[in-house]
Amino acid sequence: MTVDNASKHPEVQMSSVSMSRQEREEFLAGLHVGVIAVGRSALPPLAVPIWYDYQPGGEVIILTSSKSVKGLLLEAAEGFSLCAQTEEPPYQYVTVEGPITGVRPADREADTRPMARRYLGRRGGDNYTDSTPHSPDETVYSMRPERWYTVDYSKLYA
Hints:
The chain has three helices and nine strands; from the N terminus they run βαββββαββαββ. By secondary structure, the protein is α+β, with helices and mostly antiparallel strands.
């Protein structure tokens, strides 16, 4: 495992299974169900699966109801972590951590439909969006990745 700012974390060293900046950004931009982790007081962090979007060099974007447990925790949090991984060997993962940089109401056409299409394809995404009532509490949260943890075990077999 490695983190891109290893100078701040001398215990974490670059290894033969680390991803380059380009590799990690392309991996995170790929289609994965993420697992978001948000801190909470007096309990371990909440960790739940979530759809997300990311474009290399940009921010991680998630959608959730501001009234859900996840949303309430995000409203109180300064940041969150997100992990994306492969399910089959050789395993790969990218975890990013960073501050929440934006919170705004979600727009059905600009936010919900594109996210649903990302995960379900055009037809499935449109069916999902058209058959799911739009919640006025649906919110877009943006996070700027500041710390990256990566592993690519396929490099052991190259």
